[in-house]
Amino acid sequence: MAEPNLNPYDIYLPMGQDLAISPNGRHIALVQYDTLEIVQPETSSSHEVKSLGCVRDIMFSSDSSLLLIASADDQRNMENPQEYTERISIYSMKKSEITGTVRSLRLVVRIVDICVESELLVLHTKDRAAQGHHKLEIINTRTKTPIRVLDLGSAAQQVVVDRGLKGCAWRKNSLWRIGYVQSGDIVELLLPPTVPAVKFNAETGLASTNIGTIRIEQPIASSDEWDRVGLGVRDDMVWILWNNTKIFWLPPSFRPKVPIDGTLNIEISGSTVVI
Fold first, then answer.
1. 162 and 206 belong to one structural domain
2. 101-159 tens-digit pLDDT
3. Are residues 11 and 93 in the same domain?
4. Is the pLDDT score of 272 beyond 80?
5. % of the chain residues with pLDDT over 90
6. Which of 41, 118, 140, 167 has the fewest other C-beta atoms within 10 Å?
7. What is the C-alpha to C-alpha distance for residues 71 and 33, in angstroms, rounded to an integer?
């Protein structure tokens, strides 16, 4: 079978298990079980990293200098499957090789983030027991040791952190929880799934809710900010409005508060609206 005709911006990729694109757009990482293929679209070149084991997740660092590879030993080829290990391989894009490995005593659910400057790796992990708790682990990539482990409970399904690693949020069943990473405290319980939809018009600056129309005085950089699906946390610890699985970023003038009685107050430019 003839190979497809390629040009510098047309790369043929076979079906794989996972795919990641570097933030600078210069590399594509493709996983096929225990092999990682790294493609450079501008030159149509590629190279492979083999024998990684069972790859669970891959992620580029925000500056595109590193590629993180979460993998585990193949239990099918082991005499004692209980002794298998999980690890994060740190692949240097500049050196084209794995420059470090961080091993985890827990199951790696997902790579959450990496801060290159501060040498910190953030993992969503789970205890090996059947009903084991989920954890948020912050690991020093130089010493390979955890510096903070935050217990997320038994059913954390999605985890995010802000860029400064000050706060984190995670979903448990139909609720989102918010906590401070540095202290390990859970500080808020955020929004049951009955919150009404919020629609935003970037041209008029109006947000439509079940309690009426709210004018957004602060300019929004892009309407895409209001179209993200997932949970987001900003460095300034400003949170979100949520409608089922729909998450909206809030400008800094929005500061949701959840008092003890459970009534949700959204502060909007100094005024308070109850949703």
1. no
2. 998 888 888 888 787 877 888 888 888 876 778 888 888 888 888 887 877 777 665 56
3. yes
4. no
5. 7
6. 118
7. 10
Contacts of 254 (CB under 8 A, 6+ apart): 238, 239, 241, 266, 267, 268
Residue 147 lies in a domain: yes
Asked if residue 228 is part of any domain, the answer here is yes
Phi, psi torsion values for 81, nearest 5 degrees: -60, -20
Q: What is the pLDDT of residue 91?
A: 93
pLDDT at 90: 92
Count the domains in the chain.
3
Q: Concatenated DSSP letters for 168-202?
A: EEEEETTEEEEEETTT--EEEEE--TTPPP-EEET
The last residue of one of the domains, among 183, 210, 240, is 183
DSSP string of 32-93?
A: ETTEEEEEETTTTEEEEE----EEEEEEE-TTSSEEEEEEE--GGG-SSGGG--EEEEEEET
Cα–Cα distance list, 199 to 196, 202, 248 (Å): 10, 10, 9
